[in-house]
Amino acid sequence: MARVPEYSPYAIAEFTVGVMLALNRKLVRTHYRIMDNNFSLNGLVGFDMNGKTVGIIGTGKIGRVVAKILHGFGCKLLAYDIVENQSLIEKYEVNYTDSGFFMQAI
Description:
By secondary structure, the protein is mainly α. The protein has helices at about 10-25, 25-35, 60-70, 85-90, 100-105, and strands at about 55, 75-80, 95. Strands 1-2-3 form a three-stranded parallel sheet, with helices on one face. Strand 1, helix 3 and strand 2 form a beta-alpha-beta unit. Helix 1 packs across helix 3. The termini are far apart.
């Protein structure tokens, strides 16, 4: 067992966005079809991230990097955190909202 005092926020944020892309582009289903020699595209088309609205809960170290990456994809960003980060609002056009909005979305 080892103690890790801090993971890289970049590694975690990049993994998070990678999982989002894998879900969006249906990569797991695609992999299984390829293993079966089925190269049909039926049901495998995802959607563009550009222009989509993404919610970020928590804009600490990891949330800030996620916002930066998703802003690069052209996403509209909603966020919730107890303390609003003004630099995210200015740099990445993040719109903060209250927690009730996210609870309704779930």
